[in-house]
Write a structure and sequence with these properties.
single chain; 168 residues; alpha+beta; 10 strands; globular
C-alpha cells in the first residue's frame, strides 16, 4: 500500500475510488500504480480545478449550462490540457468512481455481477457497477463537453487577437 501525502490529478491519473479505511479516503489509480490518499475524491478534484484557476462547482455548472447534463455531469478540469473525468454515479453517492477515459484500453460487462470491468493501458483493472451503455454515454458527454469548451477558448483567443490587430 503506497500512501501519498499530497497527490495532484494530472494526465497520469486514471481513476479515483472512495476507500473505506480509518486513515485513507481515496484509492488512486495512476499510470505509475495504485496510491492511497487521506484527501477525499472531492478534495482532489477541487484541487485539480484550482490549479487551472477555477473550482469544481464552476466547471460542473458550466457543463450543465451548455448541455443540460443535470445528472452525473462530466468534469472538464482543463479544456486546454484535455483533462477531464466522468463520474459513474452521482458524486454524492459513496460508490461513485471518477474515471479518466483516455487511459481505458478495454472494457468488459459481466452480466452475472452487473459490473463493468475497465482495463487500463498499464494493466490495472477497475470494477464499476454500471452498464457498458451508461459508461459509453458518460464518455460521449464528457468528450462533447471537452471539445465544446476547448473550441470556445480557441474562438475567444482568435477574437482577442483580431481586436488587438485592428487597434495597431
Amino acid at each position: 500500500m503506497e500512501v501519498v501525502e499530497t497527490y495532484r490529478i494530472s494526465h497520469t491519473t486514471m481513476a479515483l475510488e472512495a476507500f473505506n479505511h480509518i486513515e485513507y479516503n481515496t484509492k488512486i489509480y495512476d499510470v505509475e500504480g495504485i496510491f492511497y490518499s487521506r484527501q477525499t475524491i472531492h478534495q482532489l478534484l477541487e484541487q485539480a480545478c484550482a490549479l487551472y484557476c477555477t473550482d469544481y462547482r464552476g466547471r460542473i455548472n458550466a457543463v450543465r449550462e451548455a448541455f443540460k447534463y443535470d445528472r452525473k455531469t462530466p468534469l472538464v478540469i482543463s479544456p486546454e490540457e484535455m483533462l477531464y473525468a466522468i463520474p459513474t454515479h452521482s458524486p454524492k453517492n459513496y460508490n461513485c468512481k471518477w474515471i479518466f477515459p483516455d487511459h481505458v484500453k478495454a472494457k468488459d460487462y459481466i452480466p452475472a455481477s452487473k459490473e463493468l470491468h475497465i482495463y487500463f493501458h498499464n494493466g490495472l483493472k477497475l470494477e464499476v457497477d454500471i452498464s457498458e451503455q451508461i459508461y459509453e454515454t458518460q464518455v460521449e458527454r464528457a468528450r462533447n463537453s471537452l471539445v465544446y469548451f476547448a473550441n470556445l477558448r480557441k474562438t475567444q483567443l482568435i477574437y482577442e487577437n483580431r481586436r488587438k490587430y485592428k487597434k495597431e
